[in-house]
Amino acid sequence: MTSTPSPVIHPAWLPAEAFRALGSRRVRVDTAGDAGLLVGTVLAEVSRACARFGGSVQPPEAPADLVLTLAPRSRGDAARHGGPRPDRDLDGFRIGRRGASTVVTGDGPAGLFYGLFEVVRRGEAAFDPGLADERHEPAFGLRVLDHWDNVFVHRVMGQVERGYAGGSLFWDDGRLRDDLTRVGDYARLLAASGINAVTVNNVNVHAGETHLLTDRLGEVATIASTLRPYGIRLHLSINFAAPVILGDLPTADPLDPDVRRWWSDTTERVFETIPDFGGYLVKADSEGRPGPFSYGRTHADGANMLADALAPYDAPVRWRAFVYNHRQDWRDRSTDRARAAYDHFAPLDGRFRDNVILQVKHGPMDFQTREPVSPVLLAMSDTRLAVELQVTQEYTGQQKHVCYLPPMWSSVLGFQPTGDDGPTLATRLSGGVLSAVANVGDDPFWTGHPLAQANLYAVGRLGWTPGRDPAEILDEWIGLTFPGTPRHLLHALMDDSWETYEQYTAPLGVGFMVRPGHHYGPDVDGYEYTPWGTYHFADRDGLGVDRTVATGTGYTAQYPRPWSERYEHPDTCPDELLLFFHHVPYTHVLHSGSTVIQHIYDTRFAGAQRVAEMQAAWAQAAELVDPAVHTRVTERLAEQRRSAEEWRDQLNTYFHRKSGIPDAKGRPIH
Ligand code: GCU
């Protein structure tokens, strides 16, 4: 009997070649006898690279081309903790030249290996005699990827909710995977990108998964030890109704003393089992999940109860602000889903404990291709806030389409709440949390589409330097992942891919128009008469959602000035968000000079055309990239093209029929 060989796992941004510059030199890891876990990781990385490329690991005091050392104040930390303490202070490092050596000085053991990966990223340039002294430290203390992985294969959502890269790395059909080698490799990739925490289960914690907190905690501990050598802390999504579901109590009322004791005791056991446990993530009173509303309590009551249970361990609860009415009547024009998070949470500002972090989706709706920044992130100055990005491309092509998302994320992180001269949102949130929904599965390329790895890589990098140019991050990723391939090839496919995706999908910020349920492909009216609150209101005269104070839902008032005013008026509202904020006639003239209807036609044609060009460019590159990557990307581009043309034709036909206005350029509309 013959068996199919397992596919080779793609090395992503850590191919062996990336270690050549370091591995062919004399390297000294000078940690004054510290034998902590993270220092061990650094030593193992260095030894492996030197063994491969002919360099040497130098004994103490011996001359070296690269010296990796710990800052004096942190010497001993590694040994004392016996595990990672990825606190903000200890993640930083310095890099520079001392005589003929490049020296990396970690603030702590984690800083040491973040510094090591900086050397890897720079390659030969790290050994340039002119290397400038630099200090690096992460802008966000907690840089966490939230996996929406289920333990049990869910009837509708499968093993990974909104996962487009195969099964879960952790769980397989109800069980912890026997072989966690890939989890270790994953931790290494994440650490090299700058991530320091992972939530291992879906925010929708179903009955079976609720047990991870108690009787299946041993499995969680096993994952935690696989992540630990790379400084990745483990977080768990918990079920607010756990005290009831696990059968112990008749209520989950957050003010009930027995419930509070249950959470304290349970949390104590979690920390006994996993001393460096990261914290809880909670989706409550959202899309049918249980929460404090069932007991007439507020979200502050709910979050604070968990915060109190976690406080003795100095750990946070991340409480999600994604709370809205998903059983809305579409006939009711006054309810606006975009308003919901602010309406629910802004009145609670100042009422959360210090270790509650309110985790807010970057936009007010739901990870659409284009949304304004959530006004919750611009309010609540007495609450710790975290921004939640979505790496998994639920509404942005599901890892079948090339869609490099960092330009979108940068527009969020670089948003200036008080206007054009003010500080950025990233500055306001700095020191806090950057979270992102993960896009990884057991696919040999990790992310299904090999080019979707760039999104994963970039989250970690933005967690350190949120103001960094996304094009520069992309360039860095290309250099590491595709050594030897001309970079312009990948840039040609990826630089504008978010705009391209936007061009052929829902126009001008109106959002959705996707097939209900799985959210892939066009269906203009798919959500129009549903309870989900995601409407475009197209009729024969125009389209868009009136969210103004003057005539609409009043949502614009949730923004501080000058944004409330800018968004309120169509003449100052940016084109790309026009239909998010306004219902306008098809003949409305945009700042670009085009009418709305002509813009719809032009950009749909342009977007689909652009995908055809991407496909042609990639076909030319067959000899220049790894054949397995070439084949996978070729397949995905064929699907992207089919899908882009379907989007183009459905949207153009739909709006042509609605408006009766022909395309000024007379192109085929069906
Ligand atoms: C979206 C997504 C769900 C997910 C939810 C969330 O609505 O479709 O699968 O559970 O977001 O973020 O909680």
TrEMBL record:
Residues 135-446 form the Glycosyl hydrolase family 67 catalytic domain. InterPro entries: A-glucoronidase_C_sf, GH, Glyco_hydro_67_C, Glyco_hydro_67_cat. Residues 447-667 form the Glycosyl hydrolase family 67 C-terminal domain. This is Alpha-glucuronidase. It comes from Actinoplanes sichuanensis.
